[in-house]
């Protein structure tokens, strides 16, 4: 982990840490959630915002652990899980051995997030009906926010924009089709860069039309995905060139 990352501990022999950028996002999210409770006393609202933000980020950690634990079943170790500016990332120590393993590891995160979304939507519904007086209380609100966050995690990560989960599933399918992981990664990275450019354009146009700076967040996300896709494609080109040189020398 980098010097800007604080290690929280180890779970299933995997280091879990938070990058300094996560603390910035956590504070913003906690305050934003507290502001949703305008009628509540400020200390109580801030406490609710802080608790809900923690629950949301716990969902991100659970999402990443789903990747890590499925990866372990295929013999792929995970060195660490880190929360950072754009969410979380599980760092795998080696590549999946087969395209089926690649796709299964990628699908695990959105699948768990989808299950958690259903569970928390069910909890919110059950609490609201079992205790009508709490129908608009903090318990229902908390469960609803966590459910929505997990639904967004599931759907957003399913977008085939490499290196997001959907993009990794696409890579697994292409790997299975062409029997070439380097070519599969290159194609998936290019598709991911296309989605990243679409995010950037949509963010700029929406921010300009609505005069809402919030949409610039998607500009940052699109830029991050564009850089990740470009880096992945460049790495594949280097590996391919090295293999060609080795083959020529042999």
**Strand percent estimate:** 5-15%
How many beta-strand runs? 4
On the 0 to 100 scale, the average pLDDT is 86
Estimated structural class: alpha+beta
Q: Please state the CA-atom Rg, rounded to the nearest Å.
A: 20 Å
Q: Helix proportion of residues, in percent?
A: over 70%
Query: What is the string of SSEs from the N terminus onward?
Result: EEHHEEHHHHH
By oligomeric state, this entry counts as: single chain
- Describe the sheet with the most strands: 4 strands, mixed
InterPro entries: Peptidase_M50
Cofactor: Zn(2+)
Membrane topology: Multi-pass membrane protein
Transmembrane segments: 20-37, 44-62, 104-130, 142-162, 182-208, 214-230
Compose a concise summary of this entry.
With 250 residues, the chain is an alpha+beta fold.
Architecture overview:
With 250 residues, the chain is α+β, with helices and mostly antiparallel strands. The protein folds into 2 domains: 1-158, no CATH class; 160-250. The protein has helices at 20-35, 42-73, 99-130, 138-157, 165-178, 181-210, 216-249; strands spanning 5-11, 14-19, 78-84, 87-92. It has a 4-stranded mixed β-sheet with strand order 1-2-3-4. Strand 1 and strand 2 (14-19) form a beta hairpin. Helix 3 packs antiparallel against helix 4. It comes from Vulcanimicrobium alpinum. Keywords: Hydrolase, Membrane, Metal-binding, Metalloprotease, Protease, Transmembrane, Transmembrane helix, Zinc. It is a multi-pass membrane protein. Its cofactor is Zn(2+).
């Amino acid at each position: 982990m980098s010097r800007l990352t604080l290690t929280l501990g180890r779970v299933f022999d995997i280091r879990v840490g938070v990058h300094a950028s996560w603390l910035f996002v956590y504070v913003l999210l906690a305050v934003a959630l507290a502001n949703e409770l305008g009628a509540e006393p400020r200390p109580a609202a801030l406490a609710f915002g802080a608790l809900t933000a923690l629950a949301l980020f716990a969902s991100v950690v659970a999402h990443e652990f789903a990747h890590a634990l499925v990866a372990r079943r295929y013999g792929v170790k995970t060195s660490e899980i880190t929360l950072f500016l754009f969410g979380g990332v599980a760092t795998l120590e080696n590549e999946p051995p087969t395209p089926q393993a690649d796709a299964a590891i990628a699908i695990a995160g959105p699948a768990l997030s989808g299950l958690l979304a259903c569970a928390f939507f069910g909890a919110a519904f059950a609490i609201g009906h079992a205790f009508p007086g709490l129908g608009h209380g903090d318990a229902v609100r908390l469960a609803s926010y966590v459910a929505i966050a997990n639904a967004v995690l599931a759907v957003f990560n399913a977008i085939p924009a490499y290196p997001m989960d959907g993009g990794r599933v696409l890579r697994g399918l292409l790997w299975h089709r062409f029997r070439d992981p380097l070519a599969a990664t290159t194609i998936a990275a290019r598709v991911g860069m296309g989605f990243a450019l679409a995010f950037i354009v949509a963010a700029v146009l929406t921010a300009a039309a609505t005069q809402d700076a919030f949409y610039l967040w998607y500009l940052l996300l699109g830029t991050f995905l564009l850089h990740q896709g470009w880096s992945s494609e460049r790495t594949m080109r280097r590996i391919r060139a090295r293999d060609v040189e080795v083959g020529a020398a042999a």
